[in-house]
Amino acid sequence: xxxxxxxxxxxxxxxxxxxxxxxxxxxxxxxxxxxxxxxxxxxxxxxxxxxxxxxxxxxxxxxxxxxxxxxxxxxxxxxxxxxxxxxxxxxxxxxxxxxxxxxxxxxxxxxxxxxxxxxxxxxxxxxxxxxxxxxxxxxxxxxxxxxxxxxxxxxxxxxxxxxxxxxxxxxxxxxxxxxxxxxxxxxxxxxxxxxxxxxxxxxxxxxxxxxxxxxxxxxxxxxxxxxxxxxxxxxxxxxxxxxxxxxxxxxxxxxxxxxxxxxxxxxxxxxxxxxxxxxxxxxxxxxxxxxxxxxxxxxxxxxxxxxxxxxxxxxxxxxxx
Length: 321
What we know:
The chain is α/β, with parallel strands linked by helices. The chain folds into two domains: about 1-160 and about 200-225, Rossmann fold, CATH 3.40.50.720; about 165-195 and about 230-280 and about 295-310, UDP-galactose 4-epimerase, domain 1 (Alpha-Beta Complex), CATH 3.90.25. It is about 40% helix and about 15% strand. The protein has helices at about 10-20, 55-60, 65-70, 85-95, 130-145, 175-185, 200-215, 215-220, 235-245, 255-260, 265-275, 285-290, 300-310, and strands at about 1-5, 25-30, 50, 75, 100-105, 150-155, 160, 185-190, 195, 200, 220-225, 230-235, 250-255. Strand 5, helix 5 (about 130-145) and strand 6 (about 150-155) form a beta-alpha-beta unit. Helix 4 packs parallel to helix 5 (about 130-145). The longest helix is centred in the middle third of the chain and has 18 residues, at about 130-145.
């Protein structure tokens, strides 16, 4: 099949595009810039690469026509953030496309009430990002239910892998958390550190998209949470990370006000966004319907990302694992 991957050189696309090529598909990768994928793979030599600025072309009303002109059988949309953008693409492709797959987010669900969160028990989202992802997924479900375009929504957790920094133990991207833990110095954590985060390896997300492409009728009109089989809380994550550097974590419980005072405004807000939801998700539906079988635990996922940070010189510390 001819598969268009919008956002093909990003976190998920880095692993997904080679998977699709190995499966025998004719793959077109659409990206805004010319940046190379995060990891090298020989399969990219067989990929048609198209440069397009989706945001700009959406404003001009030309992006959906660009996609249709490529005559895809399947579109995998990894870079859709607004209902208007998704609606324009669906309306243009209706009747001309076999399958549209949308990359949502676990933030399409709100704060946890019972754990693990399932597709049926998720609470309403908050924040513009999560609300838009939720609205897109709901529109797609209604589109398929009404006899329109065949669609599927996959909602990944905190995507990690080699090539970029993972969300760290305190819920942000501040690289100093790793050197603090590696040195044995005290690390301030908000409250008791019991809030949870659910990571997922980018290749496991890619696996889920490939499975959905392979099982279009089973995936039709459905939404799936795609995460690692395990999740981490602040305290456990910090203790685990310290052990990678041969240290024991020294954690200092502080109030949220004190915690945020020690961070930049951006990092403080990022921590709040990740921790206030305190989410852990079930993968039962994805496993039962798609055959999803994640290769990486949350622990293995973040360790691989941290190992890359150390090897790339972005974190000056020595791992012992």
